[in-house]
Each structure stands twice: as structure tokens, then as C-alpha cells.
Fold these 4 entries.
Entry 1:
Amino acid sequence: SRPPRPNLANIASPRSPPSYLENADLGHAKPSDPKRAEQLVKKWQGVCSSAQRRSAPGGEGWRYEHLDIWLKAHDTGAYVMQAIADHRVPPDVRTFLSADRMLAFVKPDPDGVAPPSIAFGIRPIGIPSAFRRTAHRPLATEATARWSERLLEMGQVGCGLRAGAEVPPRMLQAMLEFDPSCAIDSEDVKNAFNEVDREAVADVLKREDPELYDYFMAYYQTGCLQLFRLFSGELLRLWSSVRGLIQGDALAAVIFDIVYTVLVLKPVREFYRESVVVLALHDDTYAAGCPTLLPEVSKMLKEYAAKIGLVYGDAKRKLLQLLGDHGSRDA
């Protein structure tokens, strides 16, 4: 029912011409240098063989196991993978790779009492093509590695940290032990990946990470085809996605973390640098400090989030404080 977001075709890459706009021919993807060709074959065989087995297939029905057999049987497969990774593919191939097979997961009860049900909403998960997921696995690894420490400095613990989910509760526990009168405000964005403004994403990535910008523009510049496979095997085209990221895209998490941290988390942390601790695990955001300041922090978070199309859900908002007589600092 909402009007579609503006098309991103007017947002140009700083490099000219962008590699993803080149009308390349996959038939000429093989390198002329034999050593380079051999390196590509070994590289993509290794990437595919290390991928998780029995993962959900994309719309074309292929899994990593199918790609593994293909890459070992034909050297051409490695050259095609490199062409996809470099965005040097024909427009029709890029359109095919941007399509996603949809899965609908029911959401859990926010209060943790009832079992997951459609009454609590649906979480749409998109499964991109196995070709696209495999071709961009190295980029996902590299992007996570180069951004993890930088994002951690800005309070984002969801990118590249082992057991990152344990960081916020441990830090908040330490704060409560140091000052039992402080309170914690827990905020959660509704359907964060699916709602973030694509223009805001493109703007941030264009400034901060040209490689991720090229990837984003290659697959999100126009509407992403959404497919759904019935039990009969029939594949239906439902709609085209024009907002947000695809939850299931291997690079969606790091891209979202960058945008949310730079545009929402960072300015709030800098404003309350001396008085409130603000942390985030992806879009789950925690503010800890004097109870009288937390409404202001919550309001500022909402204002910055609204600028990029995000809304915090009231159902999951929680205000926590240790039991006791805190006087004027009672939450």
C-alpha cells in the first residue's frame, strides 16, 4: 500500500564507467594468462568447497553442492564466477542474479510466553541465487574484516565479532554493578533490513566503501524480483522489492550495520558521550545511564532512525533497572 521508493538509477558511481554497467560477454571471461586462469580455478573451487552444505537453494534450485560439482568438472565455471564477482555480466544475467526466493518465517512472541505464530507477524527471508552467494562470499569476508573494528569503536558489536551477542548484556551488567541506580533502555527496529531507505544506503556506501557500493548498486539499483516456490514445484513471481535489503543476502548484515551505525548510532553516542552508553547488536539498540536522560536518548534515536526509513517497535521496548530505592533516579 505504500508508494514505491525512488529509483536509484540517477545515483552514479564515482568511477566512470561503473563496472556493473558494462555489457560484458561471459564467453570471453577466460583470462589470456594461463597462470591466472589456473589461479581462478583453484580459488573458486576452494570458495565453493568451504561453503555450508545443505543450505536453502535459490530460485534456480541450485545448492552449493551443485556448484561444487560444476566447478570441478568445468574450468569455465571459475571464469563465470570471477565475472560475476567483478560485476562484468550481461544485464539479463544481473537481473537473474538479483532475484530472490522468498521464505516466510513466523515471528516469536515479544513477551516470550506463547510459541511463534502468524499473529506476531512474518519475517520475510530472501534466498539469492547460489551463483551470486558463492561469487560474493570473498567480498563478504573482506568487508566484515575491514569494518569490524571500526564499527566496534562506534558501539556496533554485530559485525565480525565472535559471540557478539554476549557483549551488550555483559557491558550493561558491569554498569549496573558499578552504579545500581542506572537504568537500561532496550530498543528494536521493526523489520529493519526490509525497511531501510535504499537512497540512504547508497549515499553512505558511496562515501565509505566503493566495493560495497558497487555490489549494492548491481543488485539493488532497480526492484529485486521476489519469487515463491509452491509445494508442487511451481515458481511464482510475487512482486519486486523496492525498499530495504534482502534478509538472506550474505552482504546485507554488514551493509546494514555500516548504515545504521554511521547514521543513527554514531551521532547519538557522540552527543551523549560523557553521560550515556549506547550499544547496538545490528538494530537491537541499548542505552544505559541516568533514568532521566533515557527518554531524551530514545527520542533522538527515533529521529535519526526515521531519516532512513526505520521505526522502533513499542512492543519490544523494555526499560530495566535493579530493584531498590533509587529516589530521584528511579526509572
Note: The longest strand covers residues 100-106.
Entry 2:
Amino acid sequence: IAVAALPLAGPEGLAAIAAWSLCALGAWRGAARWKPHPILSRVVPAALLVAALLGWQTRDSLRDITMNRLVAVFPGGRMLLWKEARGQTLAVYQFQSGVKIALRDGLAVQHSGNVSRLIAHLSLLAHPSRTALFVNVLHPAVFFSAALHNANATLYDPHPSCREALAALSAGANPAALGPIFCGSRRPPEGPFDAVVVDIPAPPTAPQSALLTTRDSARFWRTRLSTGGLLAWGLTTAPNAPASRRAAAALQAEFSDVAVALLGRGTLLLAADKINDDCSAALLRLRPLLFNDSIQLLAALAGPACPWQRLPKSPVPPESAWRPLGALPVRPF
């Protein structure tokens, strides 16, 4: 149990040092048994040295594997940031073209760049807000997108190095100048917020991610909302995928109005007591402010109607249907 919990102990290297220390402590406490033995007196010290050497050589295995995968497909890039803490890695990679992406545990954060801006625009169109909390939406663009809706954005990320990642993604700009940023805290800011937008880490079927799309999670985030506030979940799966349907059912159990919008190949679920019906005036005001933005973002907001569809009320499955296989019955935070 102690060894399994070591990755949560702190930054990179600490878990390996602690594991080797436990081995050394065990060898020291059993010295009376193995020291007099002609074979064990040589095997035990040699095993400790081999364990230390293997730990040293494999300290950057995930980083090397991630770099080799990226360079094999997109040669010429470089890793701008790689941080490990609490059993998670957070990285920023820059392609040869200059485009940057964030990575969690070696996997690219799908909802970055253009999609992060689209998440912010759709959420604030669905529920005009003065304050918005963005969770796991690790991109400086969300602050500028929220400002176009006259909303004050707050960013929360459980990784302690999220400020460094934001600085790398924003070409070295000071993250403190963007807005309120909470990094590394076990619990999100109290609020209340008019809108809470949660980007579910990929893959959404992993136990840690699936716990964020349960009814318990929806009930938890509702405590961070102001009266009539909006909760949005961004998933990397299609709207008809099982993970998206389970998340929608969880939101429908807690909110009376749930809608779905497309995020490229992903899904944005919007939930509130009442979602905005008329977006024409807001879209008309917003489009001139996006003339320098990407074609994909302009295309997503091109029509006069609201770019989402309401979901019909579906039968609510039993509570156990939201809990992923193998996940402990714990709160999401």
C-alpha cells in the first residue's frame, strides 16, 4: 500500500527515492539474517544497487516514450515543459510549425487551442454569465474568450505546475496577468460561479475521468453554482458514444434542461435550469470580434440559431450505472 501511494507523495524523483529508501530500510532491519549468510551478504547489496540503477535509468521513461512518439509523426518539435507531481505528468510540446499543445500523462489534451475557445464561447452563449470557472481547460485563450462575453474567468487545475504550463502555452507571458488561477489544490474554489465548465480528461472511460461525469459529480459542481447557473462538461467522445450518454443521463438527473453541442469530434454537454433559447443577438455581436480567429471556430458559430440541440428527457438509470467498473465510491474531489 505504501509503495502504491508513493507517486502521490510529491514531485518527480521523490517517489523513486522513497521506494529505494523503503527497500534499504527493509534490508537494514533484516541485516541480522542475511549478513552472516555467504550468498545473501552479496546478493542483497547487489540487488539494492541494481534497483537504484534501474530507477535512475527509467526516471524519464514516459518522457522519452512521449517524445519518440511525437517526433516519429511530427519531426522537428521540442518539449517546452515536463512536470511530474502526485502521480500525474503535465507537459507542453511545440511542433516545428510553432503550434503548442498540452499533454497529460503523455496524451495530448484534446480540448486545447481552438476547442478551448469554442468551449468558452458555447458555454457563455448558453448562459450569459458574469463569473465562470474553467476546470482542466488548460489554455490561456479561455480568459480572452470569456472577456468577449464580459465574463470574469477563473481557472482551476489540480496539477501544481499549471501556471508554468500556461506560461509555456502563452509564449512566456505572466499567467498572473491573465486572471485568477488555482493550481495544485485538492478542492476547487468555492464560488459561487454563474457557469462552471469542466474539461473531462481523455479517455473519459478511465476510472479517474469517469468519476467526473457521475451524478455525484454533477451534484458536487452544483454547489459551486449560483442560482440558475450552468454546468458544462467537455468530452472527447461523440454524442452517441456510451460515455457521452451516461454523462448526459447524470446531468438530466440534476438539471431540468440539458443540451449537446459538437466540439469537432467531441461533445459539449450543457446543463442548467433554463438554457438560453435566443443566440442571434449575441452571435451578431460576437462574430466581428472573431475576425482574426480560426476558420473552424467561425464555422461553428456561423449560423443564426444557437449551435446546440436540447436532449429529450430520458429514463434515469440506477445510481450504479454511473460508477465505472473498478472505481471506488468516492467524491470526485
Note: The longest strand covers residues 225-235.
Entry 3:
Amino acid sequence: TRYISVTGVQTCALPILGRVFPCPEHDYPDALTAEIRRHLAGLLLSVEIALSSRLGQEDTLAEVPSLWDAVQAKPSLCSGALMGHLRRRASIALLMRGDVVPAMSADDEMSSSGPWLTGDADQQVSDAASALLGAEDRWIGETGEGQPMRLDLPREYFIELVWIAAAVTLSANSDGIWQASAPAAAIASAARSLIDGYDDRTSPPVQAAALASLLSYRGDASQWILPALRRRSYFLFAILGSGPAGIDPEKFLDLLLSASLPVIGHLCRAVPLARDDYARLLLNLRLLHPGWSDASLVDAASDYDALTAEDTGRMMAWHRLPEDYRQKLILLRHAPRL
């Protein structure tokens, strides 16, 4: 089972960077912008502390400056893939924290036909579900931009943050002209040491993938799609729901969190979700889309059952295409119409 690591849509950092950092025009809700900044600042501070400690152990005189200040001064240090992951984790943190439509409890009569996976008879499944629940809960906590955050990213994003830290550190401890120096080698060595010792198994996307693999192995993954959604375990929902939808988990989650109402409607029909669950989902997703009006949500819910299997299949086939291919087709005005 693949874990959700990249956006599947966002290929350049600039569209997200322009919304997260000061910009006269942006269309992200203020809450999401603040949440992305909180996650990025907290993760950078944790990397800063870790690299400082490692440099100290190696008797390196180089001092690690404020990484958050450096990234705010030069946002392009962050790749599009990293910013996409941060947008996703910030979106999920907001959705889990929000109380527009409260999440179902394990014993709610609508949550599932039985207890949640934390009480599963299979100890491996129960342990994996408990680990995922704990990891998701960590993202809900509200701390300021100045507070460190646990380093629970998928490995590729941790690596990127470490190399950002290494580059900023060398730049701050040199005269700005590259030369093969002892500090450069020492900083690189400390960075590689951090990377080699990193374990991403505490990352919610990785833990959701591990749990989904266990469910798939025993053959009952599909019955947990709806309970995962109702409990707002969005990573698990995306991995399990992407199977019936026929698209990659990362693309599924990216569409769920950021696509238009018609596309989300077809995505949910492909799972498939009942209309009541779809309407409930839209009410929660509205936290990320303040521009959605009451009338548009009512219309979307009313029209949901009328969405045809043919149109849904066409939309899913479109989103299975490689992103670069789809962008070129859009430029040529050769895209599906709803």
C-alpha cells in the first residue's frame, strides 16, 4: 500500500508559497494559512534544535540560525512537494479540530457496525489503529509558531528540511562565497547523521498505510472506508477509498481537500458514499472553502444522487492521467466538462 506523500497536483512551490507567506492576493482561508505556518515553523525549529545538537556533538563551531526566519526571507527554499504536504497536514489538522459536524465516537450507532479498529481482535490491527490515532491527535494540538513540533514527516520531507537547515547554517557561517571548507564538510556530515537516524514510522501517512495494508491482507478493508471518514481519519479514508475510485491515494486526498464541489461529488460517488455522508463531509470541508455558500452546498447535496456512473468514470479517468499530461491538455482546451 502506498502512503500519501506528495500532492499529486502541486508541482511548483510558488502557488502555495504566495498564500502562506505575505502576499497581497491569496485565496486560502486565514485559518489554513496560519495552520500551515504553524506546522512549518514548528518542524523547522525541531530540525534546528536537532542539527544544533548534532553539530555540538561533533565539536563544530558553526551555529544554526533561525530556520524559520531564513525561510520567511526566502520561501523558495521549500519545494512544491514539501509545501503540498504541509498544506495537506494543516488541512487535516483543521478538519480534525473543527466541530462543524462532530466526529463519530467508536460506539456511535452510525460510526460502524462494530467497535473502531483500536478495539480489533487482531492485536496487530489494534496496535496500528492506536498508533495512528495518537499520531493524528498530535496534529490537533494548538501551539504558536514559536513552538517545536514533533518530527513525524514522511522521510523525503524530513530530508528536505535537514538540507535546508544545513544550507542555511553554512550560509550564515561563511562570507557568502562557496569554498571547500571544514565547516561545510562538518555540517554535511551532521546532516547526513540526522537523516540516517530518522524513522518515519511515527508519521500519520505512513501509519495509515501500514494499517490499510493489514486490513487489505485480511480482506475487509472496504468495510472500514465509511467508519474512517466518520471518525475523520482522512489519511486512512483516502488510502481505502482510493481503491474503489481507481486513483492514487495522494491524488484522492488532494482532490478531497482542494477540488471543486463537482469533482468532490464525483470522487465520493466513486467510493461510493451515500448522500447523507457526502453532505456531512461537505459541511466539514467548508472550513477549507469559506467561499462555498449555503445554496451551493444544498445544490451539491441535492444533485448528488443524479450524478451518473458514466460521468463519474470519465472524471476518475481524467484524474488518473499524469499531472503534466493533464496540464497540457487543459492548455489545449481538451479537458472533461461537467
Note: Residues 30-57 form the longest helix (28 residues).
Entry 4:
Amino acid sequence: PLILKGLQDPDPGVRHMAAFAAGQLGAASLVPRLLTASARERDVRARSSMLDAVGRTGTLSDLDSLAGLFPAGSRRDRAGVLMALTRFALRGIRSPRAVWYAVACLADRSPEVRWRSLYLLWRSAPHPILATELSGKSEQFAKLATDTSADVRLNLATLLGRVESEEARKLLVNLATAEVRRKDPDWRVRVQLVRAAGVHVRRDGSVAALLLEGLNDANDHVVIAACMAFPGDAPTSRSMDLRDSVRSVLWGLVRSARSRPPDVAGEAVVALLRFRPEEADDVLAFSMTADLPVRMRSKILEALSLAPTPGGWRAMRSAWEDPTIAVAMA
């Protein structure tokens, strides 16, 4: 009763807090009232709280009702509606209407609306309609590759890593090319690019070039993401040229353990043995001759567990007697 009274209060601040409380309490019985109130609410903050509460507690039929009250062609409070639809998606309630609404908002003048649209799309994955929309609206998605907002570009890269289709791979390469050409490239975008490339490289070896670029990136976050994304079962692992290039770069990163942050060399050694397990003995020999940080030693043990050898097993068994290693690997 108190929340219902709050939703009807003349003070927009009270209406905002009442809607917030409804969402936090998960009051599903209030969703019809929240929908009705949001449709007539004029205060932006109060309306956003009402929409958020609907997204937190509503059902699939409530999602359809929301889409009916705020049609895709309307520009009214798009950011709030996108937020509500994303709340549904995060709870596993996904609908083609939500996808269509997000696609309709991609050309909005507001960068916030554009990145929220892409965020809703990748949070809606996996959904079969996403590949269809990417293919049918490829020109619209391609324009976003040169968007001035880094938030837009990083969410686009994330989306392309969630949709395994030929069109997604093509757009991913275009986005990577556009990012390289920018005067103000953003490392967060490049992180998402290499993560997406790690998904697609299993089906299309040509995408591996993006991962190799990530391994050579000047930003440690990008290098770590590339190491973690590079799979050992990619079709490109049959290419001797690529194998040699990747091996050379990874070994270079491994040997940089004393000059770069431990996580860079650590993820590199794990990627190396995931990619070339036959080099386990060489990694073990390196670990015995170098004065390495505890974090690096623990990552070497993790890597050796991916390619077990008699020497590796002995090294792992003795390492557990060192409490600093045990803590580092915990």
C-alpha cells in the first residue's frame, strides 16, 4: 500500500523512490501499476525508476506490454526503455521485440542510447534473430565501427563476439581496421576485439591476425586479453607460418617476466602451452633457470598442468610445499 501511495504522490522524488523500492523488493504484483504510471509520468528520473522496476520484476508478457507502450518509432525515454529491456535479458527473458527495439535505436543521436542498444543486443545473445539482424542491417552496424563514442565501439565488438556468423566476422575485421586508423584508439575496444576474435578464430582462421596484433599490442590489458583468447584448437594452428609467429611472440612475452607485469608473462606461458603443448619441457627448463616472481611461477605451474609431463608433475608436486605458491594459485 505504501508503494502504491508513493507512485501516486505529487512529488516526483517520492514517485522515484517508490518505484525504486518496488524494483528492489521484486514486487511483481505492482508491474501493471508501474507500466501504467510510467506511460503518463513526465519526470525523467521517476519514469526511469518505474521502467527499471518493470525490467527487474516483469514477465515476458510484461515485456510485450512495455514494448507496446513505448514503440520503437518513438524517441520517448529510449535510454530508460533500453535499460528495462536489458534487465529482462539479464534475467533470461529475451524477445524478438526487444531486439527490434534496440536495432531501431542504433541511429539515435545520443551516444548513450546507441551504446545501450548494443549492450541490450549482446545481452540478448544467444538469440537466433541476432544473426538475421546483423545481416539485414549490415550497413547500419558498419557505421558504428567509426562511431566517435568508445562505449559504442566496445559494445559493438562485444556483440560481434556473441554472434557466430560470417557477417559478424566481416564486421569484426572492419571494426578492427577502423580502430587502428583512429587518432584516439581506445584500449578497451581493442580488448573486446581480441576477445571476439578468439571466438571466431575457431571457425575462420583469417581472424587469427587480430589475435596476433593483440599479442603485439603496447597495452598490457590488450596483450593479456589476447593471450587468454587464443585457443589451442583453432584451425589456424595448422598454418606453420602462424604457428611460428605466435610461438615467437609468446616466448618473447614469457621471457619478459622480470620487466613487465607478471600477469602478462603469466598469461603468455599458459597460452603458449595451450597452443603448443609439446614445449612443456622447454617451459620447465626456463622456470628453473630464471629468477621469477611468485605470480609467474604459479602461472607456469598452471600452464604445465595443461601439458603434463613427468618433469612437470614433479615440479608441481614440489611447488605445493611452498606456501607462497599455494596462496598464489588459490
Note: The CA atoms of residues 232 and 250 lie 13 Å apart.
